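Section 3.1: Structural characterization of target chains.
Under the original work plan, the team committed to producing a structural model for every single-chain target entering the pipeline before any wet-lab resources were allocated. The record below documents one such target. The sequence was received from the expression subgroup and is listed exactly as submitted; it comprises 621 residues.
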Amino acid sequence: MITQVTGNGRVLLTVNENGDWNELTYPYPGQFQHLREARLGVFDVRDARFTWLRGGNGYTIRQAPYGAGHLPESVWTGHGLQISVRDHVHPNHDLVARVFRLRADPARPVRLFAYHAFQIAESMYQDTAYVEPSIPSLVHYKRGYFFEFFSDPPFNQAVCGEHTLKGLRGTYVDAEDGRLEGRPVAHGAADSVMQWDLEGVADRDAEIRLFMAAGRSLPAVHQVRSYVQNGGYARFVRESEAFWESWAQRRLPQAPGGLSDAARDLYRASVLLLRHSTGANGSIIASPDTRSLVAAGDTYNYCWWRDGGYVSKAMDEAGLYENSSRFLTFAHESQNPDGSFFHRHYPDGAIGSTWHPPPFLQIDQTATVIAAAWHHFKRGGDPDVLVDLWPLVKGAANFLLAFRDRDTGLPLPSFDLWEERLGVHAYSTAAVAHALERAARVATEIGKDASAWRAAAREMSEAALRLFWDPKLGRFVRSLSPRDEKVDASLLLALKLGLMPWDDPRIRGVVEGIEARLWSKPIGGVARYEGDQYYGLENPWIVSTLWLAEARLRLGDRGRCRELLEWTANHATPTGLLPEQVDRATGEPKSATPLTWSHSTFVDVVHKYAESERAGAVPEE
């Protein structure tokens, strides 16, 4: 499970509960996942004892992000040793640094081993690993992806081998007698181990700085390695730390007051997670977590336009205006010729996998991008931005205008935001009406004719309020064609987008009815919908709980909103990551962790909570 995250918009590194590298993606966050396994081992020369750093092996681990930039840190203690590991991704070089610090009491010689098994470009085949003894360095490569390891002090020994294929366990077994004796080169499913001989003492650290340069060619990684060696190893660690200190001071907003320390810490961690999840090209991945490969045969390492649109809006709220701008540029580059958006895209912009039949539509995704474009202008106030965004907005709005049933005024059938059901959905309808109205605002700002979009938005809103409301049930149904009456938390999000005016006397009953039916006992939180069975029966989701928090805030229930924000903070991991959902029995994270949408929704609701306190009212969506 991922416990810590850092990156630079090209390299994204995650760390797991063992303090090991968990995932290494390059050249975009989420694409490609090059690492199969990493592990750290210790050989106590005096006692002739080898141990992989794992819980239950006589070691305990403490993990907590350090510094203003929440950089990953893991500290192992056991057998009279303390080993701390800090990870850094350099802000402008594709360079990862791991700093190991070791103490031993009583003093004695210790050997440290670092094992890496790669699956370069997400395939175990045709990799090569080799040791260059004259430097010394160790290189893994395949086709256009190269990874060069080097260290200060240099490793004493390094070997290469193979894993997995041919029934092999992996070259890490070569370390388990405390001495490496393998080959200097290997190909196929290639892996490697490096060894350092240290003198551990009680009152000062034995320190190793291990670097890994990533690049698209051998000269590229050699150039970075030479730059580090000539410039001084410690300098590049200091630069990484100093950048994040400066970034946090100048860019990370102060967490709004009135919240607990845990909620304020989660707010800061969430803003950083949004930054790390955004590629230099503007793509925003739903999650770096790849564990769903086992359960679902695919990952969350894609850019969904709904998730990305909501993340973009939260980034604008938190001051990450340039990141939001890059996302909207990426969206325009990925937009279909008819103005719509495909289900999801890879971080490089290629069309992603889907389980939907043609036309591969969740209509609310196209709508969310329009809303994000208007919100981006609203936060920046620069009309030139709208000129740049006009082709994106015009194409998407014209598509939504045409994608309607002329008899009802509602959108034509598409898949719902949960990506499960084909139909005409209350949330999707609210999202489209909201988007058309925002597109009309964009057009008006730059002198374009907005009448068709504004009229369609009004007609659709009126039709939605009339056709989805069931007076016998006293609430909205979630879908038509086919009709579906299940209580669904997405209706809270539909209310946020204007499905029913907040001054309508019926709206409190709608919100309270959703909360009463979908509130999870005893752990708390709001499930997605009645009978949801994704990773468990009616587990509470972070986003749906926060939608309730905003609804309560808009109804004037500030105390309940704060309770739900604190509930969210209490269900983050100890290192400040929010999952997609929470096990309703144990409270443990379920499914993708971290989920970028969970973090962005927390940031958004915290801002609305703070702004309502300052202005006395909640700002419009």
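The radius of gyration is 26 Å.
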